[in-house]
Every structure is written in structure tokens, then in C-alpha cells.
Amino acid sequence: MNLTPFAELSPDFVLDAVSALGFEPDGRLMALNSFENRVYQVGIEGDAPLIAKFYRSGRWTDAAIREEHAFAHELVEAELPVVAPLRIDDETLFDCDGQRVALFPRKGGRAPELEGTGVTQWLGRLIARMHNVGARRSFASRGRIDVASRVDVAAANVLDAQLLPAHLVDRYEQLVDAVAERLDDLFAAIQPGTLRLHGDCHPGNLLWTDAGPHFVDLDDAAMGPAIQDLWMLMDGGAAQRAALLEGYAEFRDLDAGELALIEPLRIMRQVHHAGWIAARWSDPAFPRAFPFAAEPRWWEEHCDDLMRWLEAD
Questions:
Q1: Which of 22, 171, 213, 261 is most buried (most C-beta within 10 Å)?
Q2: Which CATH number characterizes residue 25's domain?
Q3: How far apart are CA 37 and CA 21, in angstroms?
């Protein structure tokens, strides 16, 4: 395992990579917030800045990344506000001295204000239109949002990383096994359909402008149930949730049974988040960004959350 997967990404390396793809950087460079990958805003002589995204080695295959890029372009072609990578000589993913990189146009904006019903109704319509495109075909190389990928793999990462305090190992194993079993039963009972999704449709991956929203960062695009792209936007109360679903229904039917998956998907996200931190702990950026994961109290609270979910009606 490469303990410092992005160590060579000096400013000169980033600027040289952009230059090698046919652009003329003006020397301005700003690192953007990203932990899984590394993302930079690069100034371009006489033109708008570009976003250079360097992909973490070992997470996605080249085929899976290109599949994500093709999905983004398919959404743009359907006139959806999605930021897609630049095509250069019909290619979107490039190798620069062993680092995989894609370039994106810079799109500004602010976080959407989800408290009002108008914004969420608008988002519901856009997500439904996105799902209409996503339902046209399946991903071949990308993952699925399911118990195996979001719970089983995550738990294995936690146990392998040795972040979990010794006195919690047995409890964690028992709890996560019980969570996985219950989730399997819930998904089997509901049997949701699957389609190509944004996959990580939270407010941080939406940017709002005077012209409306646009979606960014399809890095977690995967096959999964439609409700996955909706539930993270449902934290504003009953009226806001109803508006989101009303907007969605204008363009696409949602299986009402999928609403029962909101809490299961929420606990899956918690387990997956802990496993993600554990899997990336050897990357020096992670202990700096998530120091709480080295503290027993955080893992105790995580186990308590799993127990509360299992005990809930």
C-alpha cells in the first residue's frame, strides 16, 4: 500500500500535468477540499480557471472512472446541470507520470438553502430527470450501493486498521453482524429496483447560482435504489420532504416502498464512513482531518449508534 499516494503532487507537478494536456497555466493554484482524491483550481492564461482532479490509486479502475465520465456527459446531453470532465481528443482520463487526472470546467455557486420548499421541489425535478437517464442502462464497471459494499467491506476495513480499541472489538463485530443481517432482511422485503445514481447527493455536491443548481462530483456514482439520491436532502422537516417528493413525481414515479429504506441507508452510510476513515488511515491527510477516529470515545459512540438503530422499532 502506498502510504503517501499523492506525495508527488507538488505545485510544479500539477501545473506541468495541466500544461501537458494542452493548456497554459498562469501560475495560480489553489487546493480544494477533497480527501478521497486531490483536486486543484488552476489558473489558465487568458481563460477561465480549470479544475484538475487526481484520482486515488486503487479505488476505481480506469474503466470505472471512464464510465462515470460517460454518465456525466450523458446527463449533460440530456440538458441536465451536471459538471462533466473535458474531452480532449475524445478522452477524459489521462495518465501523468503515474497519476490519473481529469480536467473539469470551474463552476461557481453556493450551497442550496434547503429550508424552503421551492428549492427542494426544484431539486426533486432535477433528480427525477437524472434518474430517467440513469435508468436507460446499467453500469458495468462501477459498484453497487448494497450491504456487501457499504457494511461488510467497511467493517472489514475497521477491523484491519486496528483503530478500534481492543475492548470494543467483540462488541463491534456482534453489532455490525446484526446490522448487516437486519439490513439484508429489509432489502429482501422491499426488493428495490436499481439504476445509475449520483450516489452521494448531499448538499455539498450541489452548487446554487441565480440560474439554479448544478450537480458536481459523481465520484460515488453507482447502481442503487432511487431513494439514495433523495434521502440526504430530506433534513428540513415534513413540508420540505413532501416538496422534494412532489417535484420528483413530476418526472418520475418513486416506489413508495423505498421510503422505508431511508433509515437503513442512513445507518449504512455511518458504517461506511467509519470504514472509509479506517481504510485511509495510512494516508497522512486522514489523521489530520479526522483525529477523533483515534479516540476510543468516538468508536464507543459509533457502537452505541449501531445499538440504537437495532433497538429502534
A1: 261
A2: 3.30.200.20
A3: 19
- Residue 47 and residue 53: Cα distance in Å, rounded? 19
Cell digits of residue 18: 495541466
95 catalytically annotated:
no
Is position 1 within any domain? no
Q: What are phi and psi of 65, to 5 degrees?
A: -65, -45
In a domain, 4, yes or no: no
Same domain as 188, residue 54: no
**Are 82 and 176 found together in one domain?**
no
Measured in degrees and rounded to the nearest 5, phi and psi for residue 236 equal -105, 15
217 is catalytic: yes
- CA nearest to 205, candidates 53, 82, 51: 82
Could you tell me the residue range of the domain that residue 21 belongs to?
11-105
pLDDT in tens, 37-84: 999 999 999 999 999 999 999 899 999 999 999 999 999 999 999 999
Catalytic residue among 146, 200, 219, 283: 200
CA distances from residue 52 to 11, 29, 81, 124, 298 in whole angstroms, order as listed: 12, 10, 19, 30, 34
Quick count: other Cβ atoms within 10 Å of Cβ 81? Answer: 20
Contact (Cβ atoms closer than 8 angstroms) between residue 64 and residue 197: no
Residue 208 to residue 166: CA distance in whole angstroms: 45
User: Would you say residue 6 lies in a domain?
Assistant: no
What is the C-alpha R_g of the chain? 20
Express each pLDDT in 181-222 by its tens digit: 999 999 999 999 999 999 999 888 888 888 888 898 899 999
* Amino acid identity at 148: A
Same domain, 94 and 132: no
Say how far apart CA 54 and CA 36 lie, in whole Å. Answer: 10
Q: What is the DSSP letter of 202?
A: S
- Crossing angle of helices 296-311/262-279, nearest 10°? 160
Query: Taking Cα atoms as reference points, which of 274, 272, 92, 261 lies closest to residue 184?
Result: 261
Kindly name the residue from 217, 219, 220, 229 that is annotated as catalytic: 217
Domain count, the chain: 2
Do 86 and 127 fall within a single domain? no
